[in-house]
Amino acid sequence: MTDANLVLSLDAFTAARNSEKALFTAGPASLLTENLSGLCPCFGRGDPLYDALEQRVMGRLSSLTGHSKIARLQGSASLALEIATLNFLAGKVLIVSSGYYSDRLHSLVNTAKSSTGHIREVQSASWTDLENVSGQFDWIVACYTETSRGIRVPIHELRRLANKVGARLMVDATASIGLEDQHDLADVLAYSSCKGLFGLTGAAFLAFSGEPENEVASLYLCIQTHLEKRVTGPYHAIASLDRVLENHAHFRESVVINKARFLRQMRGQLTQPEKFQPLLCTHVDAVLRSAAATAVTYSPRGNLSGSVVCHLGEAHLGALAEGKILELLDWEL
After folding, report:
1. What angle do CA 92, 98, 102 make, to 5 degrees?
2. Do the domain assignments include residue 279?
């Protein structure tokens, strides 16, 4: 089979699979032909073709965020966040409270404080009250996009806060990577291969600027294990990104189109002003339901009135998306 025929076959396959299910969830996105055409047999040692593929992907990710140092690991972004917490955080830490996922960060930091001697004190502050934070801190820890509540905490405000209190900034970029900008403002950044990168699930990434200073006894939770590739890596998840990242702007445009149409459609029920609207998702004070058996709605972790709708369901259409997927939703006020 020629490459052209293979792509046509994969196009038909992904079109059929995507027709079976309409996703309004937070990621992974709909299935892309490029996810599959990028897959190949691969191994992490002595495989020059895979080495070249991984270097391409890691180079594009580094360019995307502005971080020259990046570890890849097999698992979710939560694993990357736990590794970041153990390997980087020390001294006095401030958690920016924004919802379920910032609460998870708080739990990770408190666990690290109890199990190691690196973290001395942990405090928290609401994302709506950052201007009143005072004193000195060593680290600020926050979610850029909080999917559990459909909130974007502007990263330049997090950076301004970190500068004000003399801290470094660690950011959970799971729901913002590939969609929002200025990730370079974070000193440490954790994210996964799916959601706004449009890859398959299975890879997590930890990008950083300064070297980790903490000693970590665990083999798997020590960042050096992953930097030195001493365990099996997320080979196929990385391969699923290779051809996607070549044309990432095209696929990202589908999210822009869906977000814009949903904002127009639900403008009377929006709970956040434009400044705090993430591209990935939208919270409304209405109850949204599936109007078709194929539609899969998003159930956020944590308790929240209204609904959160995510905009990754037409990623496979790229810039040709029209937001027609939204016709599969009903709602009541």
Report:
1. 55
2. yes
